Amino acid sequence: MMANAKRIDPRVARQEAQTDLTTETLPSIAGGISWMFGLMSIPLLFVPPTAIITGLLAIIFGHVAKFKINRRLELGGEGAATGGLLMGYLCFFAALALLPSIRMQATLTEGIANSFRGVAVAASGSTFEQAERSFLDSSAAATGNNKESREIANELANLLNEKRNEIFGGPNGLKIQTLCQANEKGICVVALVPDFADFDEDARNAMLNLIWKESQRLAFGKLSPGNDFAVAVRDRVRYHSIEFGRATLSPDRIAQPDSSFVDVTMLDSYFDSSENEEPEKGENDEERE
């Protein structure tokens, strides 16, 4: 019987043993990638948008690794895939929860920057910054640098405060204030809506459209063809919209805004003029006194 037994080639047996040893320790590349992205997501929570991306990648590669490991028993790395999935899910949802804080942080940072800018106004010598600071510090409902601009500011402030409750849906003690500046370049209108950022997008857009439309109507007849026209809307912290148009050759209208920015330096030219009168109180302030 020993003679009839099948003879096993030692070289074949050794090769099969080596093959078994290799397949038992073959790692899953997807599992390692998932673990790497999961680890990266933890410090990146300080930058939530980036942490969302790396967390999502850790989740995707983790599930791919799990799928391949279940189908190919020779693959290893299930622990790395599980760890990557765990870190990926935790960091992904944590980053989503932290996203609203980015806006708050940006608003706070801009508010601090504006505060420092206000302190430096005297040294900067910018006419616009001085007018803006005086406007923000004042309780005046309307401010202008000459008779025509004060008329525009007064009428616009009255109209916006009448329409405010209708647009924003409910009474509020925060009054809208307006600043109007006129010079040889054109007319600039700044509307201060203290609680602008507290309302939904539809209400904000309705207010922006109303401010542009009424400012354009009030400026009619006071602009020459080719004069520039700017309307800016802000709250106590920052500017939300600055729109620019130009008086056309047609005597009955101003061109619709051809550009929209939130770069306040573009308003400087409306406040640079040696012919500007000293800002005076509007009619609303005289009535208040």
Structure described in brief:
The chain is an alpha/beta fold and 289 residues long. It is 55% helix and 14% strand. The protein has two domains: 10-114, no CATH class; 125-288, no CATH class.
Provide structural commentary.
This protein has 289 residues and is α/β, with parallel strands linked by helices. It folds into two domains: 10-114, no CATH class; 125-288, no CATH class. It is 55% helix and 14% strand. It is built from ten helices and nine strands. It has helices at 10-24, 29-41, 48-71, 78-119, 121-124, 127-137, 147-168, 201-219, 268-271, 283-288, and strands spanning 26-27, 75-76, 142-144, 177-182, 186-192, 228-234, 239-246, 259-261, 280-281. Strands 8-7-6-5-4-3-9 form a seven-stranded mixed β-sheet, sandwiched between helices. A two-stranded parallel ribbon has the order 1-2. The longest helix has 42 residues, at 78-119. It is elongated, with a radius of gyration of 33 Å. The relative contact order is 0.10. The model is unreliable at 115-124 and 274-289 (pLDDT under 50).
Order of helices and strands: HEHHEHHHEHEEHEEEHEH
Total helix count?
A: 10
**Main β-sheet description:** 7 strands, mixed
Number of strands: 9
Helix content: 55-70%
Low-confidence stretches: 115-124, 274-289
Radius of gyration: 33 Å
Order of strands in the sheet with most strands: 8-7-6-5-4-3-9
Which overall shape is indicated by the principal axes computed on the Cα atoms?
Answer: elongated
Cα(first) to Cα(last) distance is 124 Å
**Class from secondary-structure proportions:** alpha/beta
